[in-house]
Design brief:
This protein is α/β, with parallel strands linked by helices. It has 2 domains: 3-242, Type I PLP-dependent aspartate aminotransferase-like (Major domain) (Aspartate Aminotransferase, domain 2); 245-380, Aspartate Aminotransferase, domain 1, CATH 3.90.1150.10. The chain has helices at 3-9, 50-62, 74-82, 99-108, 124-128, 153-160, 175-178, 213-226, 232-242, 245-264, 283-289, 306-315, 345-350, 367-380; strands at 67-71, 90-94, 115-119, 135-141, 166-170, 188-192, 206-210, 269-273, 296-301, 320-321, 331-333, 357-361. Helix 7 (175-178) links the parallel strand 5 and strand 6 (188-192). It is globular, with a radius of gyration of 21 Å.
């Protein structure tokens, strides 16, 4: 089954009782049993729900995975991965990553004796130099948030394959339409379903996908024991969003490269960070492991200050100033004061997240309107 067909059909079937073509919303907390322990596959909706199960099967198929699990948020999914570890274990991560992930690692799990190392993972030797007998997980985010760096998934997974170190890839920016980390050797794929997979800025959800039965069993245990699961209404909306993932991502990519080219030629722009640009430092890796380059980009205003950056994001029209990304509508944000405010300034600057950096989530509107919006706003600042 090809990807475009998977989004609409994988893991799904018409409702047997009514013939409904759309997966029903099973808005129930519990299920009737014929006798203790004898049921129709579901006991309690924290443990399993038919609407959620359909979504988990669908997302798993999109990533060419065997097991899929959905959570109440992307951070809840990350939380479950780190709970595979124990006190004394160590994690290696890129130094350019979502601020919420950094906060979860350093402000929550470091309190439980897990140590985190952050490095420029675009050079895989930096990762290998940090590997020790205590290393149990490598956390890869690619493309990274917000600098759009690209990390060579296959090179890292091959380098640690014999060391019994898990590799988990946050695939949120790329989506399974553009990149499939399991095919490149990763053990677990994580998604903030809130973003491109849901695609309509109307749900909060996370997901994990893997092929290993033992890892899946541990994750299912944690999902059920800790209980951070999504409700059936959100699962229904995610399934509906996935049905157009392929056509939305195609337009995100088309608009993304157009805007990256426009900004890179503008005299008020200093740097543009977009993996689809030939002069992007990781373009060749992106070309190798991605099918296209997505709808996320960041840029620095020329000779900009914090004040000018805040002025820019406050004056756009179609690029709405808001947290999050990946919806059909275009969004803009100021990472230093919004999505990455949890990261100390000294650490932010190491990865290039300056006070003047602006992040765009390019939507699927008409490209002429989006470019006009950017051009007119640049004139104002």
């Amino acid at each position: 089954m090809k990807f475009n067909t998977k989004t609409i059909h994988a893991g799904l079937s018409a409702d047997l009782s009514t013939g409904a073509i759309m997966t029903p919303i099973y808005q129930t907390s519990t299920y009737v049993q014929d006798s203790p322990g004898e049921h129709k596959g579901f006991e309690y909706s924290r443990t399993g729900n038919p609407t959620r199960l359909a979504l988990e099967k669908n997302i798993s198929a999109l990533e060419n995975g065997k097991h899929g699990l959905c959570y109440s948020s992307g951070l809840a999914a990350i939380d479950s991965v780190i709970k595979l570890l124990k006190a004394g274990d160590e994690v290696i991560s890129t130094n350019d990553l979502y601020g919420g992930t950094y906060r979860l690692f350093t402000k929550v799990f470091e309190n439980y004796g897990i140590k985190f190392h952050f490095c420029d993972a675009t050079n895989y030797e930096n990762v290998l130099n940090l590997v020790s007998e205590k290393t149990k997980l490598i956390w890869v985010e690619t493309p990274t948030n917000p600098m759009l760096n690209i990390i060579d998934i296959e090179k890292i997974t091959l380098a640690v394959k014999s060391k019994q170190i898990l590799v988990c890839v946050d695939n949120t920016f790329a989506t399974p339409y553009l990149q499939n980390p399991l095919d490149l050797g990763a053990d677990i794929v994580m998604h903030s379903v809130t973003k491109f997979i849901g695609g309509h800025s109307d749900i909060i959800m996370g997901a994990l996908i893997c092929n290993n039965d033992d890892i899946a069993e541990q994750l299912f245990f944690l999902q059920n024991s800790c209980g951070a699961v999504p409700g059936p209404q959100d699962c229904f909306l995610a399934l509906r969003g996935i049905k157009t993932l392929h056509v939305r991502m195609q337009r995100h990519c088309e608009n993304g490269i157009e805007i990256a080219n426009f900004l890179s030629k503008h005299n008020k722009i200093k740097n543009v960070f977009y993996p689809g640009l030939i002069n992007h430092k990781n373009h060749d890796i992106a070309k190798k492991q991605m099918k296209n380059y997505g709808g996320m980009l960041s840029f620095d205003l020329n000779n900009s200050s914090l004040k000018k950056a805040e002025e820019f994001v406050s004056k756009t029209h179609f690029f709405t100033l808001a947290e999050s990304l990946g919806g059909v509508e275009s969004l803009c944000g100021h990472p230093a004061s919004m999505t990455h405010a949890a990261i100390p300034k000294k650490e932010r600057l190491k990865s290039g997240v300056t006070d003047s950096l602006i992040r765009l989530s390019v939507g699927i509107e008409d490209i002429d309107d989006l470019i006009y919006d950017l051009e007119s706003t640049l004139k104002k600042v």
